[in-house]
Write a structure and sequence with these properties.
The complex is a heterodimer of chains A (355) and B (84).
Chain A lengths: L4 H19 L5 E6 L5 E3 L3 E9 L8 E9 L4 E6 L2 E6 L2 E7 L10 E9 L3 E12 L11 E2 L29 H24 L4 H31 L8 H22 L3 H29 L20 H37 L3
Helix pairs in contact in A: 1-6, 2-3, 2-5, 2-6, 3-4, 3-5, 3-6, 4-5
Chain B lengths: L1 H33 L4 H4 L4 H37 L1
Classes of the chains: A alpha+beta (355), B mainly alpha (84).
Chain lengths: 355, 84
Amino acid sequence: MKQNWYKILAVILMIYIIIAGMLIPIGPGIVGVSHGNSSSIVAGESITLKVNGYNAHYTSGENKAFLAVKVKDDDSRYTIAANNIQVIDDQQMEVTFTIPSTSPFNETKEAGLFIDNELDGFAILPSAVFINPIGKIQDGAKWQRDQALNLHARPGLRFPFRNILIETIRNTHYHVSIWMAMFILLTTAAVYSLLAALKEDPIYDFRASSITSIAFIFGLMGLATGSLWAKYTWGAFWTNDIKLNMTALSMMIYAAYFILRSSIPDEEKRAKVSGIYNVFAFVAMIPLLFVIPRLQDSLHPGNGGNPAFGGEDLDNTLRMVFYPAIIAWTLLGFWIANLYYRFKKLNYKYLFESV
Amino acid sequence: MNKEKNKRVLTLIMGKKTRLLVLSLLLTHTAMAQDGSSDFFTSIGKIYVVVAVLLIMFAIIVGFLLFLERKISKLEKQITDESN
């Protein structure tokens, strides 16, 4: 029972991440707006935007709508409130804005749409419309400068709404955490490999190779799930995204590890050679997965030059499931690796000791 | 002898099961594709993408366990053959 604690923990965490990861609702958001034929409005005209919400409750509670433009010159936000809001149903409403004829900016600017609901809190759609001021600038325009919008906070336990991602933000707990677990597994495998290369005992090689196998399987899981997700997010199963190609490269390096192992029949020699190769593969993986993706932009969510999670991208509700998910996948990996290790040990015993 | 036969039958069924699973997955996929291309996976905020991700992960883990099981059965067979 004592050595089974991590298996029990793995099962409990697995149940938790699947239930919490799938059942916590996504916060309200705006999927998109539709309006006439042109995506830009000229100052002085009015526009009616048909807002498509997600998980929203427009029919209950008071709604407010704003268009907001960020102006870099004076580093402030200009807003106008909607002059008419017509709620169609819970997920749809029509908002009418009259753009003042004078604007505090002199070039076409993108305006974000803020929808505030008493119950749901606020939702933002960046670049909802483009506003063309036709060169008219005047101070004292009807745009409100840096006005407090008095938005309602989002209540309850909810995953954040992200456009395009929507429900697939839940993949953070499955696709993203499997990569983290793979990295933890490979780190331990590299340590065991070093021991296998230095020491005579064959069990280090069994540990190292079994952990590397399951880490490789985790890598394949990451690639397969990411590929499916990419099809419905980026439009293709495989893109030239830097992270994808670098991961594929490091997976190939590890695939060569297994080929190398199978090509050496002598147990002792295999332990030494593959142990050293594994350490090299691990060292090669670090720049491929952690350095090169930081030098280029990636399509991955949360990546803008730097793939580390910023405060904006991983909020506390996601963290509540994401960190346990890393532990759960890691423990599951060690569990399966342990089974494989025990098999290897028995196989060795049978081959060399019983004869 | 009987044991061996049983095993052979078992692997045959196992093979058939996996084949059936793959076939049914393919069929459901084509069925989904017929009613409006990618509508199924993009419906309800793409929640089925997450479901499919979980299924893929489960399938790959089970696949690895089956691989392990086959190795263990082979060793088991070797040991029983030798002791006989």
